[in-house]
Structures are given as structure tokens and as C-alpha cells.
Design brief:
It contains 13 helices and 17 strands. Pfam families: Beta-lactamase.
């Protein structure tokens, strides 16, 4: 096990012995085979209080997790795409209330699923157009094929859109198909985890006139020095890539899932703004510090502080929480007391959520059990990286919060 820090934890309000519980606890997941390995980073007031690695990035190769390990971050791509969109919003390129069909005509005249089957769905006209804020908040009525809880996600799967898209389809082509499907609910009336952030990525492309990878490189990764965050892993970096695992149904031990994991070794046709990136702890740490500092890091400002505060407030209709509005079967954590902003889940009521974080903390994660959180009240960030699908296998995110917040003593 390797542990590093940039300051004495005592100086920023942490008990070092209690921080050590993080490694003891998550070490057991590796020792009994439930996880291959992991990397955890905890910061406060801009200082790294605890950074540790344990286990293997590739069990079969005997390769340990290193500080520069490359991780598939999947849906932790979504906040980056949301930041990209809001950078354009700050420049006056669109309004949150704008109908997206202004730029993406395939989403004009949408219809909403009413009844029937995958073979014969019945629909009604949408009473509200999909607007930009619907994409940012997952209230557009879109869905994911892998949900497997509704007729609408069955239509996605029937067209080849499951955990991976059909071969050879680019982002524009995928959005053209999404526009043909009925919506799961009337826009703005519920919350449904979905391809909305992929569509948002396409909106970034059309509004900016750049491909999503070019925009990210020129406007976000380059300025922030996120040199290890890419859409695919080239051969020169392949030895740093962590292997992907799934739990054995009988034993719970992590077993390699090479068929799905190998996809990231090839340049993608579809640039998924919702799930496409590979990154390192060091790079994503810079992204979370940018957010914590109100949109600025090391003299580079991507967003204004008021924009970041606006993005990380609850934007769900009526100020309700995810427990009240979530449809489609997505529930990897307790949704009580948790709202959703413009690209982030936002903790509103720690007591109702049974999470020991502060009100106003925001977070998200990826399907391979990665996660991050930013707590402005405590000036705290945390990162968890591992590669086990699905992320609902073990309660890693809730346990990480327990361990971090119980180590705060000031």
C-alpha cells in the first residue's frame, strides 16, 4: 500500500489515525478478492490529506495500481460535458430555456410513450419541447437502453443502444436515432438517468462548431493541464490502463471482463459526452479543484463562481428530490434528500439522505465504481477509482463518506 500527502492532516482538521481507516477498510475488499485494486484521494483547503493506492490494476498481469494508472471514468465524463456546455452558456451562445431543436432538429415534435409494447408502442404529443436545461438535469424524458425497466429503453436496445452503441455510429448519428424514440415522460416532469448528456455533447459540437474532443482539448484539458484525460488509450499508454472486472455471481470475487474492457483501446467513432473518457486521479483531482475554487485553478478560469454555484443547486421541478422524481430504475444510492443540478447530484438534506456530508455537497460516479464528491462547506474533495462493474455491486461510495467525514475533527 502506498500513501502520500502534501501536508500534515492535523493542520487541515483531519485525524491521521482515522484517515488510516480508509485504507484498512477498502484494503479488505482487495484482500478477499471483491475488488482488484483502488486509488483514493482526499483533499481539504487545497491540500492532499490522504492519497493511497492498493491492489492490482491488472490482476492477471500482476501489475499494481500506480499513481499514474488510467481509469475508465464512464459517467464521470458527464460533469465535464456539463462544464463545457455552461462555458458556452456564459458566452451567450444559448439560453437554458432554448429548445434544443433549434440546433438539433431531430428533437422537434417529440412524442411521449403512453402504453403498448416494444413492437407496438402508443404515444402522445409532447406538451413541452426539450430545452437545454432538461438535458443538464436529466429531465428531458430520454433514457438508457441498459435500464431494462420500460418499453422505451427496450426500443433503445432493439436499435442496438445498450451499454455500448452500435458499431460505426457517431454522435450525430446516435442523436438522430434518439430523436426517433418516444420519450419516457413529458419533459420537465420527472428525472430519468439517460443519454441526455450525450445529446448535450452534440449540442456543444453544433453550437461551438468544434468536435467534442477538440472542444475538450482546446478549452478544458489543455488549459487545466489534464494531459492524461482522453477518449481512448493509445498503445504507448496501454500498460498504465487498469483492467475491467465484474463480480462472479457465485462468489462475489472480481473476474476480468475483457470483452467490454477492451473497447477503450480503440479510437471511438462515437464521442460519448455521457461516458467516454479515460483519466487519472491526478487529472480528475484538478477538475474537482477547479469546481471547489469556483471555476478557476492556477490562474485559469473556465467558469465564473456564480455559475458554479448555480450549477450545483437543486434544479429539479418544484425543488423536489430524486426520491420523488426518479423513474426508470436507476437507484445506486439513497435518493432521499438528494436533488440534481446542472450536471451533478446535489445533497440537500444530510439527515434524510443518511449521508454525513454537508448540505450543498455535490457528486457523481461512473459505472465501474468510480466516484467523486466536492463539499464547499468543508472545502473538501474526494476521489475513488477502481474498475468493477456495475457500481451498485458494493456500497463503496457511502462507505467512503462514512470514513472521510468521521476523520474530520475540527
Amino acid at each position: 500500500m502506498s500513501v502520500t500527502r502534501t501536508t500534515d492532516p492535523d493542520l487541515i482538521g483531519f485525524d491521521p489515525a482515522r484517515l488510516a481507516r480508509i485504507d484498512e477498510h477498502f484494503g479488505r475488499y482487495v484482500d478477499d478478492g471483491r475488488l482488484p485494486g483502488w486509488q483514493i484521494v482526499v483533499t481539504r483547503r487545497g491540500e492532499i490529506a490522504h492519497s493511497s493506492t492498493y491492489g492490482m490494476r491488472d490482476v492477471e498481469a500482476g501489475a499494481p495500481v500506480g499513481a499514474d494508472t488510467l481509469w475508465r471514468i464512464y459517467s464521470m465524463t458527464k460533469p465535464i460535458t456539463s462544464v463545457a456546455a455552461m462555458m458556452l452558456w456564459e458566452s451567450g451562445r444559448f439560453e437554458l430555456t432554448d429548445e434544443i431543436s433549434r440546433w438539433l432538429p431531430e428533437f422537434a415534435d417529440m412524442r411521449v410513450y403512453s402504453k403498448g409494447s416494444v413492437l407496438k408502442p402508443y404515444t402522445v404529443p409532447a406538451t413541452e419541447p426539450i430545452r437545454a436545461w432538461h438535458l443538464l438535469t436529466h429531465t428531458a424524458g430520454l433514457t438508457y437502453g441498459f435500464m431494462q425497466t420500460s418499453v422505451v429503453d427496450g426500443l433503445y436496445r432493439a436499435a442496438g443502444y445498450d451499454l455500448l452503441p452500435p458499431p460505426g455510429v457517431d454522435l450525430a448519428g446516435a442523436c438522430a436515432v434518439f430523436g426517433e424514440f418516444p420519450l419516457l415522460f413529458q419533459p420537465g416532469t420527472a428525472w430519468g438517468y439517460s443519454v441526455a448528456t450525450d445529446v448535450l455533447g452534440r449540442l456543444v459540437e453544433v453550437v461551438s462548431g468544434q468536435s467534442l474532443d477538440a472542444f475538450f482539448t482546446d478549452r478544458i484539458f489543455g488549459p487545466l493541464g489534464m494531459t492524461d484525460t482522453h477518449w481512448w488509450v493509445q498503445e504507448s499508454d496501454a500498460e498504465r490502463l487498469a483492467a475491467l472486472y465484474v463480480p462472479d455471481p457465485a462468489t462475489g470475487r472480481a473476474v476480468r471482463h475483457e470483452r467490454f474492457g477492451a473497447a477503450v483501446r480503440q479510437q471511438p467513432v462515437l464521442l460519448s459526452g455521457g461516458a467516454g473518457l479515460v483519466s487519472t486521479a491526478a487529472d480528475y483531482h484538478r477538475f474537482t479543484q477547479l469546481l471547489l475554487r469556483g471555476g478557476e485553478l492556477d490562474g485559469v478560469r473556465l467558469l465564473g463562481p456564480r455559475t458554479v454555484r448555480f450549477m450545483t443547486r437543486n434544479h429539479l421541478p418544484g425543488g423536489r428530490d430524486l426520491a420523488a422524481l426518479s423513474v426508470g430504475g436507476f437507484a445506486e444510492s439513497n435518493f432521499e434528500g438528494v436533488g440534481f443540478g446542472l450536471g451533478f447530484a446535489v445533497l440537500e438534506d444530510p439527515v434524510r439522505s443518511l449521508l454525513p456530508s454537508s448540505a450543498g455537497e455535490y457528486h457523481w460516479g461512473g459505472v465501474a465504481s468510480t466516484a467523486f464528491l466536492v463539499d464547499p462547506a468543508e472545502e473538501l474533495t474526494a476521489l475513488l477509482f477502481t474498475q468493477l462493474m456495475p457500481s451498485s455491486t458494493w456500497p463503496l461510495r457511502a462507505q467512503l463518506r462514512q470514513l472521510i467525514y468521521s476523520a474530520l475533527i475540527d
